[in-house]
Specification:
three-stranded antiparallel sheet; Alpha-Beta Plaits; 3 strands; alpha+beta; 3 helices
Length: 85
């Protein structure tokens, strides 16, 4: 994300798998997404306590935020539909 545009929080995630899945899904829609881990190997899990149980967060450029949120809402809706079927 070597751009001068402002980077903002999109979503906090519970684990690395979720982060990678969402990042790749957004990349498929043309949205660059930065994955930031709260994990610190030296602290062995303490960092997750400080971060309220989250593994990390996803960040996008501010001008992509609305589109990224809509894509995540569509993804959540699609997952809910497949779980109830």
């Amino acid at each position: 994300m070597g751009d001068d545009r402002k980077v903002v929080l999109l979503k906090k995630v519970l684990d690395e798998i979720e982060a990678i899945r969402i990042r790749d899904f957004l990349a498929g829609a043309g949205i660059e997404c930065q994955v930031v881990s709260f994990h610190d190997r030296a602290l062995d899990g303490i960092s997750q306590v400080w971060s309220e149980g989250y593994w990390g967060e996803l960040r996008v450029f501010e001008d992509d935020l609305e589109k990224a949120n809509q894509i995540l809402a569509d993804l959540d809706s699609e997952q809910n539909n497949t779980e109830t079927s």
